Amino acid sequence: MDDDLLTTAEAARLAGVGTTSVKRWADLKLLPCVKTAGGHRRYRRRELERFLRGHGDAGAAEERRDHWLDLMMSGEAFDLQAAMLSGRSRLGAWYRLIEELGAAVAALGDAWRRGEITILAEHVASERLSRALARCGESIPLAPDAPLALLATAQGDDHTLGLSFVELCLREAGWQCVWSGRCTPIDEIVSAVRRGRVRMLAVSASELSSNATALGQDAETLGEACREAGAHLILGGRGAWPDKPLWGVRVRALAELHELASRWR
Questions:
Q1: Quick one: which of 199, 184, 201, 190 has its CA closest to 236?
Q2: What one-character DSSP code corresponds to residue 3?
Q3: What's the pTM?
Q4: What's the rounded Cα separation, in Å, for the pair 1 and 3?
Q5: Which residues contact 219 (CB under 8 A, 6 or more apart)?
Q6: DSSP structural state of residue 28
Q7: Whose CA is closest to 190, among 221, 214, 163, 213?
Q8: Which of 11, 141, 145, 230 lies at a 20 to 30 A Cα distance from 211?
Q9: Mean pLDDT, 10 residues at a time, over the chain (265 residues)?
Q10: Which residues does residue 106 pair with via DSSP β-bridges, in sequence order?
């Protein structure tokens, strides 16, 4: 075989990425490849080097996303936790690592929508990630007088992975977190806030929560309770929350949540 032609594994090793990334570059026509008589891909070294000079940063981001996706799909929760602790050390803050994890979660959802994985596989991977996030959060020490944050999902929304991200971010900022559970009636959340121990209420709505009118009414009800109790209100996730609630803050990025939580602490 011509020494100038590389297998997918050889190209991946030279690029410092996984084979999945190399195949994707070829599928997107970013990296030219040729096919052998047996249908195997081969890559010319000079074309790979040219691609890497122009796309090195994008390739590294893709590799990190694929790395997390592989761990979510086929690793153990403890392996994922160990990788997350290492990633946090590399990036210096949990909210920065969660941005990487978020890209992998989005890719997981895209794979399910394209029919590449089953809904069961998607649920198993998400649950594995949730367990690893919880263990990482539990490893963060808190002060005895840490302020209390109540975490909840929007009415009718049972997607809690976003709240797992929120919990890890808040614990790093020094907050104790208590989950209200899935689909807790809004009047019970209001009662908990009015009892006075809650310093922050964080409510997550996934993109499936698209009823802006209903979410606006919930935001008003929860905002009134938080205003009366002197508690902060965070409305997060991709749901159709009002951009400017009467009370509280619409948060779209964990970096923003980290800044607010640190200031309110």
A1: 201
A2: T
A3: 0.77
A4: 6
A5: 233, 235, 241, 242, 245, 246, 248
A6: T
A7: 221
A8: 230
A9: 77 76 82 90 90 68 82 86 90 90 90 92 94 94 96 92 95 96 90 96 94 96 98 96 96 93 94
A10: none
